[in-house]
Every structure is written in structure tokens, then in C-alpha cells.
Amino acid sequence: MKLEEIKNFGIIGLPINHSLSPKMYMAAFHASGFIRYNYIAIPVKVGGLMPAVEGLKGLDFRGFNVTIPHKTTILNYLDATDPDAQIIGAVNTVVNYGGMLTGYNTDVTGFLASLTEANFLPEDSNAVILGAGGAARAVLWGLCKRKAGFITIGARNEVKAQKLAGDFKNYAEVEGMDWSSEMFQEILQTADILINTTPLGMYPNIDAMPPIDLKLLPEGALVYDIVYNPEKTKLLKTAEELGYPTLNGLTMLLKQGEEAYRLFTGKYPDLDIMQRVLVTSLQVENSQTDSEKED
Prior knowledge:
Elements: E1 7-13, H1 21-31, E2 37-43, H2 49-58, E3 63-66, E4 80-81, H3 83-88, E5 93-97, E6 100-104, H4 107-117, E7 126-130, H5 134-145, E8 150-155, H6 158-167, E9 174-178, H7 182-188, E10 193-196, E11 222-225, H8 234-241, E12 246-247, H9 250-265, H10 271-294
Parallel strand pairs: 1-2, 1-3, 4-6, 7-8, 7-10, 8-9, 10-11, 11-12
Antiparallel strand pairs: 3-5, 5-6
Helix pairs in contact: 1-10, 4-5, 4-9
């Protein structure tokens, strides 16, 4: 019997030891019968991206994911970029097509898929985004693609929020402002969806949350936190107590991983297996961190 070809994949970034991608993808590979597929985490320092990319090409890696701090810089070392990634200005997935590297942004796919699963229709909605960083760009572009009625970006840094809004002004009605301003408080009262793209509330800093008065939101507004660890951030717990529907970031993480897997292999993975691996890994990671605190 002919042995299956060995194919290597990975994720580059720094820090990278915390990444759950190797466990998630390896479980999906094995479930699909790709026994000789490998996926490894590769630490790449700032300034070391170019030789790293050339090395991955030389070693014939068939694809790799990209995380902080290289999502933007990687664009300089690719042969092609798909339209979503080009507009967003960031790449999180690279596929090696016979020595030609093409960059994709599967975060936007994951974001929109999570909204579909939550039965939320972005079309003509009033959307509010908290944060103006890289994650906000993918979320913003997803809302633009689905023809949201009006999008407001609220951030601690008003200049950064306004700049981000300006980058997308040709695609939708977008405005950036200080999230502590009176105008922003008024905007909250008309929001159909509030999306947190900041790391506030992410484990282990679970007592933090954006300085937003959720009581200003209209009844039925969806409160979405793209943080997936913990499962329920302080923002989501507060929203639930006030009676709002909520959504966390696990579905977005899974769906963006599903799309990257499809780009890598041409097939869709078993999402149930990927989810079980992620949830179990997060539980183990959190229990270990808690034990270290007690020690």
C-alpha cells in the first residue's frame, strides 16, 4: 500500500506557546484520515519574518497560520492576497501553492458564520464595535460585506477609532469616537448589536470589561464578545443579568479554523472534534493557571 504523502503545516507568531492551534488541527487531521499531516507552533521574532517565510517555503510547508505580531507584516512576503485580506490589511492564513504563497483572512469568515449561527442578520442593523485594533478590522469588514446600516467604533483612543472608520468609509456608514463620550452613550441606545473586540475580560484578567453602560442598550440587542476564554466574560455575564442575548468567541474561533482547514486540505473538518479539543484544552490550561496562583 502506498504511504500517504507527508504534509507540514504550522502557526507562526510570538508568543506562540499558548496557541491551541496545534492540538485543534492535529485532532482534525487524524479524524479526516490525514495521519501523516503535521502541525507545529513556530516562534518567529519581530524582524525574523522574512527568513522564516523563506524557510517555510524551502521546507515545503503546505500552509501556515499567522498570529501576533505578524498579521500585517506578512503581506510584504506573499505572492498574492485574497480580496478580504487585502481590504482588512491583515492575513491569518497562508497557503503554499507550489511555491506561490497566497494570504487569506479567515477571521471575517468566522465572524460572519458565528452571526449566522446566532440567527442575527447584520443587514441594515446599527452595529457598535468596541476597540480599534486588528480584530476590529475583520469584524468591521464583515459588517460592511453584510450591508450593516450604520457602524460605530468606540475606543479609548478616539483618534485610532476615527482612523479605522476612515479606512472603511468607502464601504459603509462608519464613525469612530471616544467610548466615554456623550455621543457614544446616545449611539448605544439605538444599537442592534454590540461587539467587543478588545482583550478586556480575557483570561486570566476575568474581572475586567470595557467601561460601557449596558443598560443603555435597547431590549433584545445582541451582546457579542469575541473573547472565548473564559466562556463567559464579565461583559457577557453582565449582559445576561440584564436580559440581553449573548454570544462568545468560541464559534468564531472554530469557524475561522474550519475555513483555514478547508484552504489547507480542500476538505471540511469535523467541527465537533475541534470544539471538544479546544474546550478541554482551555479547561486544562485554566486549571493549571489557577493552581500556579494558589502556589
